[in-house]
Specification:
Elements lengths: L1 H7 L3 H15 L4 H59 L1
Length: about 90
């Protein structure tokens, strides 16, 4: 995770430097495999991000429905208590 955060903060100069080192080590024939690997990495990252977002939205919907249910039960209990109080006063 820390590596990903550091990678996201890289500037264009650093990225160009890494690309040139890669080019020197693996040659021009290695560029397509690098592009493919980077594309797969980006696709995997987006997929994971979408999954996390979906899970957060699902859990927030569950929490909202639970909150509505508790609120409804609390209001019904309050109404019952008020009715009993009115009966005792009469």
């Amino acid at each position: 995770m820390y590596f990903c955060m550091k990678l996201l903060k890289m500037g264009s100069t650093e990225i160009l430097f890494v690309f040139l080192i890669y080019l020197l080590l693996f040659g021009a024939k290695g560029i397509p495999s690098l592009a493919k690997t980077m594309g797969e990495g980006v696709r995997h990252f987006r997929s994971a991000t979408d999954d996390i977002q979906r899970e957060i939205l699902k859990s927030s919907n569950d929490i909202k429905s639970d909150f509505r249910e508790v609120k409804k039960q609390a209001s019904s209990v309050a109404e019952k208590a008020k009715m009993e109080e009115n009966k005792e006063e009469s």
